[in-house]
Design a protein that fits this description.
53 residues; mainly alpha; 3 helices; 57% helix; 0% strand; DNA-bd_dom_put_sf; YfeC-like
Length: 53
């Protein structure tokens, strides 16, 4: 399974990776504080939908 980072998505979507990480935290997706973010394809799809709306 391929994963993506918030930084990769940020470049694609034209927003800051900090903004994406903040939104991810608001969704409750960070289970381990300070862990490296690796998003599943489904999570990446949801991020794209949110930031393209």
């Amino acid at each position: 399974m391929d994963t993506m980072t918030p930084r990769e998505l940020a470049k694609e979507l034209g927003v800051s990776d900090r903004t994406i990480r903040q939104w991810l935290r608001e969704q409750g997706w960070q289970s381990v504080p300070y862990a490296r973010w690796r998003l599943t394809p489904e999570q990446a799809r949801q991020v794209r939908e949110h930031f393209r709306a």
